[in-house]
Amino acid sequence: MNFIADTQTLEDLALLGKFNPNSVFSLFNKVKTRGAEKLLDRMFRHPMTDADSINARSQSFRYYYDNAVSLPVSGELVEKLEAYLDEARGGSYVSNLWTSMRKKVMASLVKDESYGRIEAGVQQCILFLQQSKELLQELEQLKQKEKAPWKEWADTLLSITGHSSLSDMPDGKDRLSLMQVSKLHHLFSQTVREPLQQLLELTYELDLMVTVGHVARAHNFNFAVAEEGDLAVLDVQDLRHPSLKQAVPNNIRFDTAGNTLFLTGANMAGKSTLMKSAGIAAYLAHMGFPLACSSMRFTVMDGLYSSVNVPDDLNKGYSHFYAEVLRVKTVAAEVASEKKLFVIFDELFKGTNVKDAYDATLAVTAAFASFRKSFFIISTHIIEVGEELMRSDDSIRFVFLSTVMRGTVPTYTYTLQKGITEDRQGMIILENEGILQML
Predict the structure, then answer these.
(1) What is the pLDDT of residue 22?
(2) What's the first-to-final CA gap in the chain, in angstroms?
(3) Alpha-carbon span 411 to 399, nearest angstrom
(4) Element (H, E) at 239
(5) Alpha helices (runs of H) in 111-192, residue ranges in sequence order
(6) What's the mean pLDDT in 371-380?
(7) CA distance 196 to 192
(8) Residue 93 confidence (pLDDT)
(9) If pLDDT is split at 50, 70 and 90, which confidence band does 322 have?
(10) What is the DSSP letter of 68?
């Protein structure tokens, strides 16, 4: 079963986006090779729903978090090597020798570039293998070699470099003779072609693992632990947004006894950032990736839905309120199907009048909270809803982000507290900006 996260959720949380420098994908996309970038993209698009698989990937990343490794292989070299292996199609050694001789003669007569491409491809293979051997020497100095995630990569490399034709491997920067080119071209394009391609694939994986470990160390990320079981739980300590350097950490916890966080706070108090942080953490945890917290444990869920930036639709004639209603309807159908979901609603029904928003928020929050295996964060400015829910539902936990007034200037703590806020600074902010005086 695939982990569910629809387009709006991915956009709300800025999870994907190679060309968006503020996306979570871009935060991790520091890889050297295009193959590793494609692998990273696949991982981001397909979170997992199996605890063992999640924890296994997490442990691989943790290995490179604990053991700093530098990857000497360049992305440019790997791309050239890929092109050489895609183009190289050889027969027997004799036919390769004859082809090389003919292309070399043609190169001198009519400036044919075929021989030059073969020679360059052979040299790129040699250089790649030499750089890989250097990396292997570094890896073999690390601890926990028996269970190291690079074991398959190392075995594949040794199966190639141990070939008798490479017992005296020339330097990749030296000019090769015609006989050397023919011999090695036959070796790389025929004899060890398949292991070489496998080594490239494993190098992409190694590039990704090393890079993610480096990003985790640089940002002081940590790793979640996935658990199996019928009792749903999601417990994050010192949660913060991964893209904020000076983020204030907060603890959040969900379980079947308390599956809903009812979040209040003034404008700019940090409600949306906190909710996005929680959604990003849940998504990365199901990928087995490191995340911005000190610890996290969770039971595997079926998916994630958010409603943060719901747009109206002029082409369909949808108002903002109706778009919100349709979004709630979509999520309600999924929750009612007994899926285990993590749901984020930021400012429910802000597109309608206060009375309707109060009634709708009260009814929807109470209804969602009854599905104990799903978790919900629901924020609102209508604090009276929280006061009513507090009297009627013990599965809802009430928290707020406090604001401290320094004279007429609000200061935001970005720290969660239990209860419902009494902060109302809208008019104060309006007056501080001098808008009424301007008018």
Answers:
(1) 92
(2) 58
(3) 18
(4) strand 233-239
(5) 114-139, 151-161, 178-186
(6) 94
(7) 6
(8) 46
(9) confident
(10) -
Q: Which two tokens stand for residue 215?
A: 């990003």
Pairing of strands 396-406, 233-239: unpaired
pLDDT digits (tens, 9 = 90+) for 2-16: 899 999 999 999 999
The alpha carbon of 264 is separated from its chain's Cα centroid by a whole number of angstroms, namely 29
% of the chain residues with pLDDT over 90: 54
Q: Which residues, 6 or more positions from 417, have their beta carbon under 8 angstroms from its beta carbon? A: 399, 400, 401, 402
Tell me what the mean pLDDT of segment 321-327 comes to.
84
Residue 355 has pLDDT above 60, yes or no: yes
Q: How far apart are CA 353 and CA 129, in angstroms?
A: 68
Closest CA to 240 of 87, 414, 100: 414
- Mean pLDDT value of segment 347-369: 88
* 305/308 Cα distance (integer angstroms): 10
Q: Are 376 and 343 in contact (CB under 8 A)?
A: yes
Phi-psi group of 75: left, alpha or beta (phi > 0 → left; psi -120 to 50 → alpha; rest → beta):
alpha
Give the bridge partners for 291, in sequence order: 222
Output the DSSP codes for 298-363.
Answer: EE--SEEEEESSPPPBTTTTB-HHHHHHHHHHHHHHHHHTT--EEEEEESTTTTS-HHHHHHHHHH
Q: How far is CA 410 from CA 91, 186, 320, 405, 423, in A?
A: 77, 73, 30, 4, 10
Please give the Cα distance from 56 to 110 (Å, whole number). 56
Residue pointed to by tokens 């929807």: 364
Q: What is the pTM of this model?
A: 0.89
> Which single residue is written with the structure tokens 């530098």?
70
* 299 — pLDDT class (breaks 50, 70, 90): very high
Q: Give the distance from CA 124 to its chain's centroid.
A: 32
